[in-house]
Design brief:
The structure is a homodimer. Helix content of chain A is about 30%, strand content about 20%. Chain A contains 13 helices and 13 strands. With about 400 residues, chain A is of the alpha/beta class. Chain A has two domains: about 240 residues, Alkaline Phosphatase, subunit A (3-Layer(aba) Sandwich); about 130 residues, no CATH class. Chain A is globular and about 65 Å long. The first copy, chain A, has an eight-stranded mixed β-sheet with strand order 9-8-10-1-11-12-2-13, with helices on both faces. In chain A, strands 3, 4, 5, 6 and 7 form a five-stranded antiparallel β-sheet that branches. The relative contact order of chain A is 0.25.
Chain lengths: ~400, ~400
């Protein structure tokens, strides 16, 4: 459903919708056992929920497309990720709760290591500590850009955000990150004439930073990529008439939630913290996005066993969400991160929805194999919110 | 398939295609038994057909979208309901067999009740009788609109159709129905300059009607909405090279069929009448849309048992259609109307197609659960006509 139609059909009521996202949920069979992470984990409660739910898979962006965190989540929030696209710089900035203004241009920065000849030897500067990153960025803020305002904010390890604030700045600036080692760092350049002024500022910053960093090895140079401006998107309140809240500990997911107008609630790192926050705020909102990071982290690390453990951790804690008895409870993921691939993948993602007025399903388990018997089939991830809205009685009839 | 491509590929031959629509066919499990209407009904013949058919579901408009009667049928006729949209006024007019001209502007009217202060207290005037509605509309026809022709036609209870006929009229007129009570009736106004003349006529009609109705409580005022002109769409003859006929008793469905260029045949209210009309006209057409209303009526009334009975009534009579041995027989619905919801819903609709050259299916029954084993899966309803055309040998190869 496109947002114009959603805006036309959406109506308010007093139902509650919960979207619980296990980041990187989908998996692949372990070659030793032939069973995926979900098929290996003991997940009694999730399996029980599957028996009561509408079951199937979500396709985050499209067939064969491996999504980043942004597209994977935006789709689940009802926004077509091929239409609502955000630059890397913006994703990093919102990811650290930076208050990005509409005219700002943000870029993702890496501290890196170059050798005597100026060739990149390590794009991540040996993953310097976050503390060291913060010291360096604090000094880089002192660079004078002739009137334009400058923000240099640490993210984590070698990663930082550069924000340029001033009149007439644009995102038409090429990356200075060649995305490989053994080559020099390109100078800042514009991709069209309207980016000239911004590229000049980025170039001045890079040049002065290089001088300052000369004796700071391993972080003796920096790379910039994904110059971007904050998009101005319709909010979930505007489109879907929801009061949405995000329960996410990691800044990246809080940032994504903010881009669609969610209120971000303070929450600790553990799933028990998320459940507690959900309960405390139950009466204040009618849509909750609850994010669980560690399934993805384990998958990214290629740690099959830890991903299984994290799934079992979710299974133990999910009861706290179920007992709030939301009108619609969606359990799924933003993309697959099969441990055997140690990275994001394009595979459809397990999904189930417990709500009134679902057809009886034949799924006895919440796993890649069992969900194939679900009546939902594989649907675009951007359709799960409209479907949830329908089951919550929040969508009016289309046409007379 | 969009209509341009359909026009390019369609070719004539002497096959017969029948679309049998059980209005509101799809259902949901009864909480007492866990079985849907179709799963409860004894439908030996439909089940036998399912064993010989390509089986699955149709999605009328989109995931989560509850269709009105218009979009649900237009999709089955091959017209994308998000593209081929009709205004409420037109639907009401065609729904009473009013012969709407291309230049006419039609609006849906409600008689309503206002209090001493002019605030709406009942948008439906206590649902006055259809007879009373007819008396009032007859008098309202006498209003003089300075040259423009005026039609005021009763529909049912408090509902009527207003048609304005004259040169240069447009549908750029705002509703005078605020869709809520406790507020005054807005005056007619245009939504753009080109609607000014039409809005002035609508305003004059509303003003004089108000004076006339002043002492006719509870119907002492009226509301107008959905100003619309008859769309000029390509016909099924033009696009699909079919000679299509509609066998539908209710005016609404006859009207929808007319919008896509079907010839509407005279037919009585019962399914036996439909079968007889089909047989009588068998040689004159090559596409028949046969409409059965009562599954929807029972569902809308929340009468699970009656819906079951109506399905069994269809099962008994379907033999008369089957024995005509159409080259393609489609059996489905325009949308779901689960009795437990007592209204239209967004759920995919059971569908089967018996034809030459279908793949073997695994469905032993025509029911929501059994059809999940069908090889068709869930397809957009607008694709069933192209699929039927293919099985009838009426679609040429695409590309060399």
């Amino acid at each position: 459903m496109d947002l114009d139609l959603a805006r036309q059909l959406s109506q308010e009521n007093d139902t509650k919708i919960v979207l619980f996202v296990m980041d990187g949920l989908g998996g692949l069979p372990h070659p030793g056992t032939g069973r995926s992470e979900l098929e290996t984990a003991h997940t009694t409660r999730l399996d029980m929920l599957a028996k009561e739910s509408l079951c199937g898979f979500t396709l985050p962006v499209g067939i064969g497309i491996t999504p980043g965190s942004g597209p994977g989540h935006l789709a689940l929030f009802g926004y077509d990720p091929l239409v609502y696209n955000i630059g890397r710089g913006v994703l990093e900035a919102v990811g650290i709760d930076f208050d990005l203004q509409p005219a700002d241009v943000a870029a993702r920065g890496n501290f890196c290591t170059i050798d005597d000849r100026g060739l990149i030897t390590d794009r991540r500067a040996g993953r310097i500590s976050t503390e060291r990153c913060a010291e360096l960025t604090e000094d880089l803020r002192k660079i004078d850009l002739d009137g334009a305002e400058l923000f240099v904010e640490p993210v984590r390890e070698h990663r930082f955000v550069l924000v340029l604030r001033g009149d007439g700045l644009t995102d038409a600036v090429a990356d200075t990150d060649p995305q490989k080692e053994g080559v020099p760092v390109p100078e800042a350049s514009s991709t069209s004439a309207e980016g000239d002024a911004t590229a000049a500022l980025a170039g001045k910053f890079a040049k002065e930073a290089k001088e300052y960093l000369a004796d700071k090895a391993p972080a003796n140079q920096l790379l910039l990529r994904g110059f971007a401006k904050r998009p101005s998107w319709p909010s979930m309140a505007d489109v879907f008439r929801l009061r949405p809240a995000a329960i996410a500990h990691y800044p990246m997911y809080r940032g994504l939630a903010k881009l669609v107008g969610m209120e971000t609630l303070d929450v600790g790192p553990n799933i028990e913290d998320s459940v507690a926050t959900l309960k405390e705020n139950w009466d204040k909102f009618d849509y909750f996005f609850v994010h669980y990071k560690y399934t993805d982290s384990a998958g990214e690390d290629g740690d099959f066993r830890r991903k299984v453990q994290k799934l079992e951790e979710v299974d133990a804690a999910i009861r706290g969400i179920v007992e709030m008895d939301p009108d619609v409870l969606m359990i799924g993921g933003d993309h697959s991160t099969p441990a055997i691939m140690a990275g994001h993948s394009w595979h459809p993602v397990p999904f189930m929805m417990r709500a009134r007025n679902t057809r009886a399903d034949a799924c006895g388990r919440f796993s890649e194999r069992a969900l194939q018997d679900g009546s939902l089939g594989t649907i675009p991830a951007k359709e799960v919110l409209p479907l949830a809205m329908a089951h919550a009685g929040r969508l009016a009839k289309y046409g007379a």
